[in-house]
Every structure is written in structure tokens, then in C-alpha cells.
Write a structure and sequence with these properties.
Rossmann fold, alpha/beta, 13 strands, binds NADP nicotinamide-adenine-dinucleotide phosphate, seven-stranded parallel sheet
Length: 303
């Protein structure tokens, strides 16, 4: 029986994936993150789940556990409002170090969870997306069998992206950056977990890059309206804040003031660039069965 190694298992996607995973199919399941004190499962932890506390960039802390693992799912990333250097250190360099260790340990398959933001045409100040783009290139140049999965914005209980949109949508006057016509295709975190399981159980790892989104596409302004209607019972015309000058301004300010700014320049790119998944065999098979926007808001925002 093979073993599985998951980085970022304590994160939003990782915890949801573990609640979905059939642990009986594996000899051991390793979960790597720096902090061991986050509960990984809503149910009692199975005996074959082993938590490892280490930084991606310090392989001495996890190298020995990779031996005997056939597959690695790489979810760990600096997300949210990290410093540009941290995005680069964790998302690009950390991925490169992990890939090198996987090759040395004889790992066969590598599933890299990237982001739809990699295909945004503009990302000058989006250090997260730039580092993910570099990481994808490292995965493609490795000797491992790989699949790169680029999810769109991920929704669920505890979604940081959804929390940001809720804050803007529920202001006394909702704020939308730019025209609001940019398209989004939210995917429910449980549906993403299902897709990851499908990739693991199929004949995948043939060097594909697969984009994956939810069942519905809508403009970001419509999505925020739906969020407000869901939480407040009514919508309200939004204030449109100009995007073009705000992104470079934030990009400069956040070098010094990042902790006190409400948003990062990178996060604003979702208001500027369409976050839609292109067609592929995985999404055509799975996306029609995914949750609707209404269903995912119910799952995510109901107490
Ligand atoms: N959420 C979205 O909307 C979205 C959309 C598209 C793609 N993605 C991608 O999906 C993946 C999972 O996202 P998420 O929302 O679950 O992120 P998350 O909640 O921020 O979780 C990140 C995970 O990575 C771990 N981690 C961070 N830095 C690390 C380091 N230096 N060494 C080892 N572990 C580290 C964190 O644990 P510690 O902090 O304890 O180390 C945590 O387990 C990421 O690769 C993200 O880029 C997310």
C-alpha cells in the first residue's frame, strides 16, 4: 500500500481535502505545515495520519518522510497578505526545494495546486501570482510525473477570499473596484477536494495544466450583490472605486505599510482580470455537478 505526502494540510483547502480523503487507501498520510496545533479533521484523526512541523525551505525537517511516498500533493503556500519576499521564498523557492527532495526520495507523482491568477495578463504587483508562475515552471522542468491544477477563487467556510468580498459587499455602501464587470467562477472547496481525489485515483500525472472552476460564471459585482442579498436580504448600488491608479499606489505603499492596509495590490487584480477556467477533460466531467453559487453561499455563510 502506498503512502501520501500532503504539504499545507492544515490550510483551508488541506483540511477540507483531509475530511474527504479515504485514509484506508494509504499506508501512511503525511501532512506538512509549520504549525502543528491546527485540527486537521472534524472527525477523530485516523491512526495513519502523521503531522510534520517543518518549513518547506528546510528539508531536514521533512526529507525522511518523503521516502516511500508515491505521490505528493503540494498545497502549502504563502497566501493572503504576505511580503513579496515571502511569496518568493515559500511559493517559488520552497516549491523548488520540495521538488528536488521528491526527486531524491523517488517520489513518482506530484500534484501542484497553483492558481488561476497565473494566467492573469497583468500581475506586475501580484507577487503571489508571479511566484506561483515561477513554481509552475519548476514543476514542468522536474523529473516527476506531474499535474498542475489551477483553481479559481475557492469558496467555503473559512475562505479568506470570500471573507474579503463579504467585507466589501456589506459596507453601508458596497465598494467594487473598477467596472465590476470582470468575471469570476467560484469553486466550492468540497468540489475542489473531490477533483483532487479524482486526480489521485485516475491515470493522471501526464504533465497537464488543468484549470478548474465552479458551475457558474458571473461578474464580480453580481457575485458581491448575491453575497449582500444573502447576508442582508437586499442589494444596494455599489460605489465604483477606480482601479487603474489604486493598484500601483498600493503596490508602492504596501512595501512600508502592508500590515495596516485593508487589501494588497495583488488582491485587486481579481477585479481587473477575468478568473475563468479554460475548458479541459477534468472540468467538463466534474464542473456540471459542482455546487451552484447559491448552494456554496449557503454552505459557507450559514452559521
Ligand atoms: N484559497 C483560494 O481561493 C485559492 C485559490 C486558488 C489557489 N489556491 C491555492 O491553494 C493552495 C491552498 O490554499 P489555502 O487557501 O488552503 O491556503 P492557506 O489556508 O493559507 O493554507 C496554507 C498552508 O500552507 C502552509 N504553509 C505556509 N507557509 C509554509 C511554509 N513556509 N512551509 C510549510 N508550510 C507552509 C500553512 O501552514 P503553516 O502556516 O502552519 O505553515 C497552511 O497549511 C495554495 O497553494 C493556494 O495558493 C487557493
Amino acid at each position: 500500500m502506498e503512502s501520501l505526502f500532503v504539504t499545507g494540510g492544515s490550510g483551508f483547502v488541506g483540511r477540507n481535502f483531509f475530511n474527504y480523503l479515504d485514509f484506508t487507501s494509504y499506508h501512511e498520510v503525511f501532512s506538512l505545515s509549520r504549525n502543528k496545533n491546527v485540527p486537521l479533521l472534524q472527525k477523530p484523526a485516523p491512526h495513519n495520519l502523521c503531522e510534520i512541523a517543518a518549513d518547506l525551505a528546510n528539508p531536514d525537517g521533512y526529507r525522511s518522510f518523503l521516502k516511500g511516498c508515491r505521490t505528493v500533493i503540494h498545497l502549502a503556500a504563502a497566501t493572503g497578505k504576505a511580503k513579496p519576499t515571502e511569496y518568493h521564498r515559500v511559493n517559488a523557492e520552497g516549491t523548488e526545494i520540495l521538488l528536488g527532495e521528491c526527486e531524491k526520495a523517488g517520489v513518482k507523482n506530484f500534484l501542484f495546486i497553483s492558481s488561476i491568477a497565473v494566467k492573469f495578463p497583468q500581475k506586475k504587483y501580484y507577487h503571489y501570482a508571479l511566484a506561483k508562475e515561477q513554481a509552475e515552471a519548476k514543476v514542468r522542468h522536474s523529473r516527476l510525473h506531474y499535474t498542475i491544477l489551477r483553481p479559481t477563487i475557492i469558496i467555503g467556510k473559512g475562505s479568506a477570499a470570500l471573507a474579503g468580498l463579504v467585507r466589501l459587499a456589506c459596507l453601508p455602501k458596497p465598494v467594487v473596484f473598477g467596472t465590476g464587470k470582470t468575471m469570476v467562477q467560484p469553486i466550492f472547496v468540497g468540489d475542489l477536494a473531490l477533483a483532487i481525489s479524482e486526480i489521485l485515483s485516475g491515470d493522471g500525472f501526464s504533465g497537464e495544466t488543468l484549470e478548474l472552476g465552479g458551475r457558474e460564471s458571473l461578474s464580480i459585482e453580481d457575485f458581491m450583490k448575491r453575497i449582500r442579498e444573502f447576508l442582508k436580504g437586499h442589494s444596494l448600488a455599489a460605489l465604483h472605486w477606480p482601479l487603474a491608479p489604486t493598484i500601483p499606489l498600493l503596490g508602492v505603499l504596501e512595501k512600508f505599510l502592508s500590515p495596516i492596509l485593508p487589501l494588497s495590490a495583488g488582491q485587486l487584480y481579481s477585479f481587473q482580470c477575468d478568473g475563468l477556467a479554460g475548458p479541459n477533460h477534468l472540468s467538463s466531467r466534474l464542473s456540471p455537478h459542482f455546487l451552484s453559487v447559491k448552494q456554496m453561499l449557503e454552505e459557507s455563510l450559514c452559521p
